[in-house]
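hey can u check if this looks right to u? its 186 residues, i copy pasted from the old doc so theres a chance i mangled smth
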Amino acid sequence: MAAFKPCTILLVVLLGACGGPDPAADSNGLPPLVDAAERGDVDRIDDLLGDAADVNSRDLCQWTPLMKAAANGHTEAARKLLGAGARTELSDSGRYTALLLAASNNHHEIVELILDHGADIDHAEATQGFTALIWAAKRGHLETTALLLRRGAATDTADLQGRSALDWARAEGRTAVVRLLDNPPA
């Protein structure tokens, strides 16, 4: 019986979780607009949008171009996609949205762009019940936490364990974030 290497098992699990091959994918396995957004290639995004590419196309894990741009901190790519009609409420199979991905990675400029385009500030993902504020507070992202508070994020929302953003900030030793959550901006 052949032994599998851990990376082989991980790849099989990931592929199984996200489905089979995508017939519209390019050579690296991603739909072209998703790939361009992941790389932050604004010129390629412009070309693809000019050729009527679906701004809300998805990869095998159900990530959209906006999600890829948000997760990777590509502000100009996110701006282009939002301007072309990218939908902020779309989520992957775990209910992660572009807002959650931007907030969890401390891309506060993208968080603001996405909120300006109507994202639900208090949307919670399904795996842990985290909102954008919980993610930002847990990870100690002071600027993103402050932005979310200014924009009206609910501070009393609890995740699936019953923990709020303040609970997580305390547990993770995020002193500056705790102070901010204790005294949110007016």
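Residues 18 and 61 are 5 Å apart (CA to CA).
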